[in-house]
From TrEMBL:
Originating organism: Natronorubrum tibetense GA33
Origin: domain of life: Archaea
Protein name per the record: ABC transporter
Domain ABC transporter residues, every copy: 8-227
Alphabetized PANTHER family for the sequence: ABC TRANSPORTER, ATP-BINDING PROTEIN
Length: 245
């Protein structure tokens, strides 16, 4: 069930790389028990915002505030291209991450079960498919039961069935009360699982709300149509702050 109170909140975030402004006055909330999806063109600042909210770098300006309970791990993070130490099995990999937050060996199997990888527990990580590696990454991100889980392009490069499964896992995490933030270009899957959508363009959030509310706002019947209207311009270009490429 969606909780109106945010677990994670960004207020007036700016981020610059030298003289290039990538994010400008971005404010957003990530509520407990909900999937918040961040969408936008390539080059719009999604990864920079995702990494800032995950605590991986400090924004140039503004504040990011965690409102959740004090735990051994506040925020779990899945990078777009997760990689694990060769020679370890899935079980051994999660045992290692569990040891970092003081969790026992049972946590490894609990989180493998959560993402559907129990049958692959003793498979070496280098023998996993791309989709299974992504699922192991989600399991790693949930070790220690962090109240916030951030997933950067969790379905990128996967076949349609595996992408759908990964998004279903994200929805299940939200059903368990976790505040889930994910970025994606798969608008069909976003429309299916997201409780809140943030549309980022040229470093600014240009629209936000539920899919239903956004569609009603534009008088359209799909998130793709919302995206077209909100972004505007040439959708075939890569957005570069200060211009197009």
């Amino acid at each position: 069930m969606t909780d109106a109170h945010p677990t994670l909140e960004a207020d007036g975030i700016d981020h610059d790389y030298g003289t290039v402004s990538v994010l400008e006055d971005v404010s957003a909330t990530v509520p407990r028990g909900a999937v918040t999806a961040l969408i936008g063109p390539n080059g719009s600042g999604k990864t920079t915002l995702i990494r800032a909210l995950a605590g991986l770098h400090e924004p140039t300006g503004g504040t990011i505030t965690y409102h959740g309970p004090e735990t051994a791990r506040r925020i779990g993070y899945l990078p777009q291209h997760p990689a694990f130490r060769p020679g370890f099995t899935c079980r051994e990999t999660l045992r290692f991450y569990a040891s970092l937050v003081g969790a026992g060996d049972s946590a490894a199997m609990k989180h493998l079960d959560r993402v559907g990888l129990v049958d692959a527990a003793d498979r070496p990580v280098e023998a996993l498919s791309g989709g299974m590696t992504r699922l192991l990454g989600i399991a790693q991100a949930t070790i220690g039961d962090p109240p916030v889980v951030v997933l950067d392009e969790p379905g990128s490069g996967l076949d349609p069935g595996m992408s759908a499964h990964v998004f279903d896992v994200a929805a299940d995490l939200a059903d368990d009360g976790i505040a889930v933030l994910l970025s994606s270009h798969d608008l069909e899957l976003v429309e299916r699982v997201a409780d809140q959508v943030l549309v980022l363009s040229d470093g600014q959030i240009v629209q936000r709300g539920s899919t239903t509310a956004l569609e009603a706002r534009y008088g359209v019947d799909s998130l793709w149509s919302v995206y077209e209207n909100a972004i505007g311009g040439d959708l075939d270009t890569v957005r570069v702050q200060g211009g197009h490429a």
